[in-house]
Amino acid sequence: xxxxxxxxxxxxxxxxxxxxxxxxxxxxxxxxxxxxxxxxxxxxxxxxxxxxxxxxxxxxxxxxxxxxxxxxxxxxxxxxxxxxxxxxxxxxxxxxxxxxxxxxxxxxxxxxxxxxxxxxxxxxxxxxxxxxxxxxxxxxxxxxxxxxxxxxxxxxxxxxxxxxxxxxxxxxxxxxxxxxxxxxxxxxxxxxxxxxxxxxxxxxxxxxxxxxxxxxxxxxxxxxxxxxxxxxxxxxxxxxxxxxxxxxxxxxxxxxxxxxxxxxxxxxxxxxxxxxxxxxxxxxxxxxxxxxxxxxxxx
Length: 299
Prior knowledge:
By secondary structure, the chain is of the alpha/beta class.
């Protein structure tokens, strides 16, 4: 049998007022409703809580003991509920790379807002990684976490996997030897590695299985991974992509992962905020939500 919480609430009000009538006024219900709830509570407990003398009521010894035990819990519930109801929206500004925001975070924001409706999360475009201007944002997603003075949550280590559009995937998925991928154009994003060298992503991918990048391989070069993503979606070749730089919808409808090896890049991503802001409402919740979101994506 479930605990009759409403009846316990009515009992506490009646015991403090020493009157069913006054309790009914405070609770905005009828006096008979209070009397009925308390009678049900007494039946549930198997003990009388009040001695009734006409309109007057007195707590029994067991009723007094019960009041001391349950009243603090009712007060805690009441205060927590009032605080929640009165709590105003708290704004947080999160700075991150635009590509990460567009492909990964923005599609998931409805879930965050549903879980934390009192946190008004706004996104800022991170233009220079490693610069943590708290006048610009309250928290950051970065590949260069500060050595001190900041709380940090590890989000994920970046890996690259070969993706392509469905027409190419239908043929390429049957290939098991990496060098056979060069039957198709390869799409390279220079921004993936700090060297910014054209074709560095594919050179490292082949090197991971002790193979040189085959000579005369046809490679289309792009400055940024987002451009390679779009080219891959349009069937222009095979790209090495990080799943956080592709949306769930794209991987379901227009980008398909090939069953070949992946490689680590030089980057790991972290959510960070200044230690002095640790008590600010929403920062810890956002950090834990981002960690959980990354775990879901990595499964």
